[in-house]
Write a structure and sequence with these properties.
Layout (H helix, E strand, L loop, with lengths): L1 H45 L5 E5 L4 H4 L4 E14 L2 E13 L3 E2 L2 E7 L1 H7 L8 E5 L2 E8 L4 E12 L2 E11 L2 E4 L10 H6 L3 E4 L7 E8 L4 E7 L2 E2 L9
Antiparallel strand pairs: 1-2, 2-3, 3-5, 4-14, 5-13, 6-7, 7-8, 8-9, 9-10, 9-11, 12-13
Protein name: DUF2993 domain-containing protein
Organism: Streptomyces albiflavescens
InterPro entries: DUF2993
Length: about 240
């Protein structure tokens, strides 16, 4: 009897292990196919110049799709062209369903500094944009003598625009507030060039709003909130 019980226990353990392996394999297969479909649809809608990746981040995400639930998704795309600019985009959505709804989420768009410089061509003639400690830095040469100058600027946002406001300027090792330049006759022209510049962010999908912007080593990062409901730009059968 003892031997029979041991054999039955071994058989049950083997069956359990086999079923677990099958469930895992099925989940991975369905998850892989779902990620592929999401990436393909994102590629068709965004038409990026670079690759698109989709990752299901909820446990047992693959098997959830069989019941109409996808779970949490992260989609990234490189080289998305919008508003005459090329950017890298990442979107994170929660509780996505196969019919294209979600519980909302967040997104980011990173714009390279070469493109930021082009968009700010009227802000500080000859200055190029970069990032340092979360602030936007404009560097270059100004005036008839070509003096090297460094301008630190803050970036603020509304739901559909961001504003770059120069705050301090450094010339020949001396730093001062941009507003104080008005008191220096020789620097009045530079002061006029360093007026705040607002850049509209148009064409956002319904339910998407700009929430913040900050400078990084790789570019200016715009952050967005995504309201619950249909996923941005999605039709039915999103997954």
């Amino acid at each position: 009897m003892t031997g029979n019980r041991r054999n039955k226990t071994r058989i049950l353990a083997a069956i359990t292990a086999t079923l677990a392996a099958l469930v895992c394999a099925t989940d991975l297969l369905v998850e892989h196919r779902t990620e592929g479909r999401i990436a393909a649809q994102a590629s068709r809608r965004l038409k990026p110049e670079g690759p698109v990746h989709a990752d299901l981040t909820t446990p047992i995400a693959g098997l959830r799709t069989l019941g109409g639930e996808v779970g949490d998704i992260e989609v990234s795309a490189k080289g998305v062209r919008r508003q005459h600019a090329v950017m890298d985009v990442t979107v994170r959505l929660k509780d996505v369903t196969t019919d294209g709804n979600s519980a909302g989420g967040t997104g980011t768009a990173t714009v390279g500094y070469d493109q930021v410089t082009r968009r700010l061509d009227s802000l500080g003639d000859g200055l190029t944009a970069g990032g340092q400690d979360g602030d936007l830095i404009l560097r270059g040469s100004v005036g008839p003598l070509g003096l090297p100058v460094s301008v630190r600027a803050k970036v603020s946002t509304t739901s559909d625009a961001f504003t770059i406001t120069p705050t301090t300027v450094s010339v020949l090792g001396r730093s001062m507030a941009v507003d104080d330049l008005a008191a220096l006759p020789a620097a009045s022209e530079l002061r006029n060039e360093l007026e705040p510049r607002t850049v509209p962010v148009t064409g956002l999908p319904r339910g998407v709003a700009l929430t913040s912007a900050h400078a990084t080593d790789n570019g200016l990062v715009l952050a967005f909130s995504i309201a619950a409901g249909p996923t941005p730009g999605a039709g039915r059968g999103a997954a």
